[in-house]
Automatic annotation (TrEMBL):
Protein's name according to its UniProt entry: Protein-L-isoaspartate O-methyltransferase
Signal sequence annotation: none
GO MF annotations in UniProt: methyltransferase activity
Ranges in a coiled coil: none
Family membership noted in the UniProt record: Belongs to the methyltransferase superfamily. L-isoaspartyl/D-aspartyl protein methyltransferase family.
A Pfam family this chain is assigned to: PCMT
Originating organism: Streptomyces nogalater
Main location: cytoplasm
Entry's EC annotation: 2.1.1.77
Amino acid sequence: MTGHHEAKAGPERLASALIEKAALTSDWLPAYRRAPRHLFVPDVIWPGRAGMNRQDDRVIRGQEPDIWWRAVYTDAPITTQWDDGAHTGPGKGKIPTCSNSMPTIVFSMLAALSVEDGHRVLEIGTGTGWNAALLCHRVGPENVVTVEVDEVSARDARERIRRAGFHPLCVVGDGTEGYPPGAPYDRTIATCSVGSVPRAWIEQTRPGGVVVTPWGPTYGGEAVARLVVGDDGSASGHFVGSSAFMRLRAQRVPRRHVREYLGGRKWPADGVRSLTRLSPDDIGDWAVMFAIGVRVPGAFPWMEEYDDGSYTLWLRDTAVTSWATADCETDRAEFEVYQAGPRRLWDEVETAYRWWERQGRPGFERFGLTVDGDGERVWLDSPDHPVPARRPDGRG
């Protein structure tokens, strides 16, 4: 009985919550009602909100319908695939590779897309098909092209979209290439994150058109970029809010184990010891990780936790040449650091953090991104003020 009640009450309750957050606006409400989320959520899921259900608890609709319905109509992401489909449960796999995104983010990104009636839209990352269906209702199925690299996900999403009564062009392919036969598009939206905006997305979007994509450096931190395409083939615009999407498959960065950095020796191996007054706790927020990542390319963090609540922050570079550790213990004014390799990664991170502090601790909304023939540049407040990024060799 609860499942039946949730099926009726859940959609309106979630709509009210999204409207209150100003995520779901009146122009998207008809699409929300015409393409309800539950039509695009598979029977086997891993709900994403701790407290309602842990992500590592697989929920099967036929066995736990009440939990399934509550998850669908909660403002939280739902993982629908692990390890490109290799892990099906129970428990969780290593890397989530498909999801039905958090509704707040879905509608915030659609709002940033600024679609109008009759616009042609290219979507990168069909996923479960919900976003494509919402777009179909808004601009017409004949104006929507959606691209998905995973053949199984693409097949399942296409069936869900068609059962909902929509018939966009569903393409199985590498999203980095867009879909040239359908170009030019008025709008391009990605439901996966990138560290470099594929040129095809900009080239296939008409001048004056908009590209909306999650963007984040290797280090961590991520936000949604809203880029307007110029007559010269460039694209530029501000970030419009925080995000946390799965990486475009073609841009995944493999991460090697710490043992490969230590060369078979025990930590601290050849690391040089120093002390810092900057606590690793101070550099863990998403916005500061973004700023650090822009300034410190080709590096990423990992936290090794201990039973007493202390932890070691590991920093490693993607070239597997350098590493650093910083120990975080409570009630300490100074923290022990070890660094090895041609890059002094902790020094780079601390320099980036101090820069962020001097700029007034900016949030995502003060940053922007420009993509042109010279490459990509993240800027602060204005394209005239690019963020000073260090080169991968540690200089710059």
